[in-house]
Specification:
Gamma Fibrinogen, Chain A, domain 1, two-stranded antiparallel sheet
Length: 85
């Protein structure tokens, strides 16, 4: 699926482009804003995105930094599945 949006602002790359960016040596950082405006972030050492037959499943490597507890890994992975659909 092709991306869409404003490339100089908010833009979604698309499933295949996101998959191509993932892989060896690539870290993933996720930034979120809480309901009261607090900033949260987490960085994973690596990540991968499956192909279309794997429904573009996100796989996360070990947490290396951030202010979100690693116990939220499952939650983040589930949210990512929604974002990638």
């Amino acid at each position: 699926m092709a991306g869409f949006g404003d490339r100089s602002g908010e833009h979604w790359l698309g499933l295949e482009a996101t998959r191509a960016l993932a892989g060896a040596g690539r870290a993933l950082r996720i930034d979120m804003v809480g309901p009261n405006g607090e900033d949260y972030w987490i960085r994973f050492a690596n990540f991968s995105v499956g192909n279309s037959s794997d429904d573009y499943r996100l796989r996360l490597g070990p947490k290396v930094a951030g202010n979100i507890a690693d116990k939220f890994r499952y939650f983040i992975s589930q949210l990512a599945q929604l974002w990638l659909i």
